[in-house]
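Researcher: Good morning. I'm working through a list of sequences from a screen, and I'd like to move beyond sequence-only analysis. For each chain I'm collecting a predicted structure so we can compare shapes side by side. This is the next one on the list. No need for commentary yet; just the structure.
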Amino acid sequence: MSQPHMPPAHPFDDDKLKEECGIFGIVGVTDAANFVALGLHALQHRGQEAGGIVVHHPEHGFNSARRFGYVRDNFTSQSVMETLPGPIAIGHVRYSTAGSKGATAIRDVQPFFGELSMGGVALAHNGNITNANALRRELIERGSIFQSSSDSECIIHLMARSMGRSIPDRVEEALRKVEGAFSVVAMTRTKLIGVRDPLGVRPLVLGKLGEAWVLSSETCALDIIGAEFIREIAPGEMVVISEKTGVESHFPFRPQKPRFCIFEHVYFSRPDSIIGGRSVYETRRQIGVELAREAPVEADLVCPVPDSGTPAAIGFAHESGIPYGMGIVRNQYVGRTFIEPTEQIRNMGVRLKLNVNRALIKGKRVILVDDSVVRGTTSRKIKEMILDAGAKEVHFRIASPPTAWPCFYGVDTPQRDKLLAATMSEDEMRDHLGVDSLKFISLNGLYRAAGEASGRNDAHPQYCDACFSGEYPVRPADMLEQGFQMKAAE
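Model: Good morning. Structure tokens for this chain:
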């Protein structure tokens, strides 16, 4: 049965960076797919375009379901979940980065499945393979037949060509040939496998539910099923989990200094998740504290751009002593556009999702705290709404440094010439947005907020911050082949 084509994303969301996906797996429970569906629901913020679940049952074998749209609309009906029996399952929610934009093809929806000589294997991937084009060409020349446009499918084909004696061995051998960022969950008939790339760019955590074991992109998905957070999968670590043997840990890659994505702290992860032993909410609140210290301004009200700007706005208000208020209210029920996005509807797109609290805003000097400025289109519309409501002044404070470089490690970033900070100075951006002042947190301030007291170590950065600094920890081979110009060495 063909799947309905997804409607275009809401206009408000066009100006936000999008994480590629969330992954989740569990072994050792009855009806594992139900737990995976709950986990994916908790990870929905990481990918709202499509989702999929693969399960294995000793009598019924492997089964899968892949759908466009939200988890709640696809994986809550009894008719669907009854087709997914078994004690082991993995799942995936996605945005498209590498592969078909807009997820027009169901064949691009993960997890991917392959039948190897020693049995079936399913795999879900969060991140981006930076040498996928070269790998794909080589595999096709050697006879591989690809079913999707996704870079993640390369891993399955590499496994099929491996001479490893077990599926975990083949996962290991395949990922040694892959460059870029990857957190992977995979499953065989009896084993759950989790792997992070040597730099640990994308997150992956281990949890326990009774005698069952869980892998997830974030701890918030462990909470929803009542699982205990055990630890993070270490950068470069591979865990092989079964009901009989428990968790076996391997380190198949050459050790490297970790470079976790700092934007997970700023925006991608849910505020109720724990990253590196630190509350995401607390980091975002501390970003607001640092912003208030670095870029103070006289004003009457600190107002978040909901929802991602809220913790930073709370921190800014507390540190500055300026009252905090919900000057903008978010309509939680809009989701994607429910009517054809004509030009007139596009122009009112932000108003469908956000509305100004006029009684609070009128006559005030307002500080708007947002997580980022990408193209700037949404920021301009929000500024206009605030002024229309009678604000005397509008000051933007941004809870991340200027986003001046595209990400090649699993974040859907516009081309560099579409990024406002790539072509304008901070003052030029201020004038372009038409606000009274505009200030971004410094890179050092962001590092301090993330728990690095001395700021950024420029010689050996503690995080991947390429979208701000232009310093890519993994060479983006495919993009260089297409003519991308990296930052010149200073």
